[in-house]
Amino acid sequence: MTAALSIKNLQKTYDNGFQALKGISFDVQPGDFFALLGPNGAGKSTTIGIICSLVRKTGGNVSIFGIDIDKDFPAAKQMLGVVPQEFNFSQFEKVYDIVCTQGGFYGMPRKLAEERTEKYLKQLGLWDKRDTQARMLSGGMKRRLMIARALIHEPQLLILDEPTAGVDIELRRSMWTFLEEINRQGTTIILTTHYLEEAESLCRNIAIIDKGDIVENTSIKSLLKTLNRETFILDSSEALSTCPDLGGYSGRLIDEHCLEVTVEKGQSLTELFAALTKQGVTITSMRNRANRLEELFVSLLAEDRKGEGDQ
Amino acid sequence: MNSITMWTSFTTILRREVRRFTRIWPQTLVPPVITMSLYFVIFGSLIGSRIGEMGGFSYMEFVVPGLIMMAVITNSYSNVASSFYSAKFQRNVEELLVSPTPNWVIMAGYVLGGVARGLIVGLVVTLIALFFTDLSVQHLWLTVSIVFLAAVLFSLAGFINAIFANSFDDISIIPTFVLTPLTYLGGVFYSIELLSPFWQGLSKLNPVLYMVNAFRYGVLGVSDINVAWAFVGVLVFVALMFAWGLHLMTHGKRLRH
């Protein structure tokens, strides 16, 4: 099957000599919901910039649905929609005009562009704002406006660079639902985000990039299976003056009602609860200290940097 | 993209450009009209009546074609320079760069947007001029062609200026320090026959002189220079500017990293 996006040995060195990408390779399959994660400055936006032609690559190959961007970039662009990290629309244009005009840039007849503009502005809850200048919109509305604009030509591959940055939780969840629906309808989605909960909840496959290299590229499920330890916060009904005996588990008392316990891979939670019950400690609730993907993400980056230090 | 989709893309850019300068008409259409009206009143009517004839015509008749051309040139230039630089500044130029629209279509759309503003301002200035003098065009097609070509040329120049510009100051430097002197010394207000041979020769290096005189020839039937050379010169410059602009776009000069 032809990959929706195929990146081979992609390199980018900026004019000042900074090597942003050191030869990364990964594929995204059609219909996938793919997370491209990494810390700030890792090379995510450079990768996206190259895919959509705003950044010139130094080496390597990029194909979108089998179309090599070096051979027929316009055809590849027709398949691609991009929602950038920063607002990049005219602040003085009306919402309707911004979306409809973008359809024209893709060669869509005016009538079709108008129909699609209405469709996506309604789906993204912006129809009432269609005659408003973009600068008057809230941050969340501006993000949705960029999504509507990217969808106007109904691309088969949609890339979203931190689409929910600075968006409140309610709106973020409604955007997740919308993106899941788009993905269900067949659009391949690549997402970069700093909210790892978002990546874990939406994406099936993942690539983690750090300092211009891919440090992990696998399915989210496989990645989570490699988690060697999880840290839980346990809430006790009684006030505790000292940390109870945790029966072989490492942990500490955070405050008189809160225990932090680390459970290694292979250890059972049942034994932990048995040990606590034996000491008369009643646990009323339990939660992960951090998102599981977040724990993995941090440990992968730490390993990567340790590896660099060892060399 | 095929020719139909390219045409759609071109008309979309052009429509957006026209929408932009008509939306901010108090900034784009009114000031040149007021300025030119003042020129008509002061230079044409008040001072002109004391100057007497120039090139065999009253000073008002002589100065009107030059002022119309000056309005077309400055408005074509500034429209594209400010519009394309604003698109760079607000980053909405990326809307076009990520689309399949070819670079030459992007250029053509912006340039024709500048031409549209230049011609609209030129038309309004012409209508105002009719309050001050009778204008009977001697060579209609020549007049229309040279004014169109001049608008294209200066729109292209504005486009290139916007590509190189890094700040709003950069798009006012060329109009202030290059375009205005060239226009004022380009035979708008006087015939170069009034100058000494040395200054006449120097004036003939000024491209604006050729456009103003070709336009004046179309309207009045008189010119300080050979009109055929004016057309050749403008066409050559249009081709060179277009090639330069396209080269800059293709290499992503200050547009892509």
From TrEMBL, chain A:
SUPFAM superfamilies: P-loop containing nucleoside triphosphate hydrolases (SSF52540). The keyword Cytoplasm does not apply. It holds the Pfam family ABC_tran. It comes from the Bacteria. GO terms for molecular function: ATP binding; ATP hydrolysis activity. The keyword Cytoplasm does not apply. Keywords: ATP-binding, Nucleotide-binding, Transport. InterPro entries: AAA+_ATPase (IPR003593), ABC_transporter-like_ATP-bd (IPR003439), ABC_transporter-like_CS (IPR017871), ABC_transporter_ATP-binding (IPR050763), P-loop_NTPase (IPR027417). Residues 5-236 form the ABC transporter domain. This is ABC-2 type transport system ATP-binding protein. It comes from Microbulbifer donghaiensis.
TrEMBL record, chain B:
It is found in: Cell inner membrane; Membrane. Residues 23-252 form the ABC transmembrane type-2 domain. The chain crosses the membrane at residues 29-47, 59-78, 104-133, 140-165, 171-192, 228-249. Keywords: Cell membrane, Membrane, Transmembrane, Transmembrane helix, Transport. It is a multi-pass membrane protein. The keyword Transmembrane helix applies. One of its GO terms (molecular function) is ABC-type transporter activity. Pfam families: ABC2_membrane (PF01061). One of its GO terms (cellular component) is ATP-binding cassette (ABC) transporter complex. Belongs to the ABC-2 integral membrane protein family. This is Transport permease protein. The lineage of its organism: Bacteria, Pseudomonadati, Pseudomonadota, Gammaproteobacteria, Cellvibrionales.
